[in-house]
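Hi there,

I know you've been waiting on this one. I reran it after we fixed the sequence typo, so this is the corrected version. Both the input and the resulting structure follow.
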Amino acid sequence: MATAAVGKTKELTFAWEGKDKSGKVVRGEMRAASEALVNATLRRQGIMGAKVKQQRAKRGGSISSKDIALFTRQLATMMKAGVPLLQSFEIVGKGASNPAVQKLVFEIKTEVETGSSLAQAFRKYPLYFDTLFCNLVQAGEQAGILETLLDRLATYKEKIIAIQGKIKSALFYPVAIIAVAFIITAVIMIFVIPAFKSVFASFGADLPGPTLVVMAISEYFVKYWYLIFSVIGGSVYGFLELWKRSKAVQIFMDRLSLKLPIFGDVIRKSTIARWTRTLSTMFAAGVPLVEALDSVGGAAGNYVYFVATKQIQQEVSTGGSLTVAMQNANVFPSMVIQMCSIGEETGALDAMLGKVADFYEAEVDDAVEALSSLMEPLIMVVLGGLIGSMVVAMYLPIFKLGGAV
């Protein structure tokens, strides 16, 4: 109990400078609960006349999935090289460029130093380490293959981040088209069209219909631009917040995303890739299938596949085969089901699932490249058509005047 109480003490970072037994000036940093503990430790190490100064806590920086993937890869590399766990934490923590990551690493190190297992230490930070991560670390600790499991975890996280990045890049183009088109339209309507309007006022002739329509829209923009921007900005922000906080909206958007033309197929393939990659990683680590499916549903990142995974888990837990359960879920292509069937029959389910994940990740790569090639000319067509129609509408009166002359 006393050890646990000490573990709760907040550690600070101290910079120190002193002389060793040979009189050589040495300096460094140390984490401890107080300056007195630093001085005591340095005296035991033979450092005399030490000057100790507390370092300011570094601020800023949030922890992203890439940070966690990098931390996992570094920890796995250190342990595979034979570096002890606590020393690995010390090296990784000091080498972290993100202050938030550094703080997290040292906090986990403190938990381990006070007697917690690595999995228990990770479970205290669910915001950064999900159930899948903690379960795999626990399996590695129990089987004595922690460095191997950390290496698999790092590879898994790197692949998941890569595929998420590809999906974001595929969805970036349509969002960019809408945003750029709106900004250019607003600039033309607020600043350019009114200049033409003052010129046309001296014509003394009836203006063409398209010109009148564009000028009417321009008047509306000039008069209510603050309202338009506020409503659109507020609507986008409100929708994103609602999507983040409302489960009903998340479910609706997950279902809708799979039905989108063009993009729906890419999202479905990426979801299947994540699903099979997660199950392959868990199964290869020796996690029982029913228990592994607990983590797989959430890792897929789509409610439709989450529900399907729960159905599959229920059927498998009552003695059914994974292949039949996946077929009954009716969300997996026949190729995935056939590969799983072969894997079950040959006892190489993890390898087959890994190959399925590789295949669908490659499919996502190809689809994103195709979308990029398609969207670039589409952007030119949309923006050219939008701006061109406004320019033609405003030049029609000039053409009409030239014809009359």
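Quick highlight: Residues 1-8 have pLDDT under 50 and may be disordered.

Best,
R. S.
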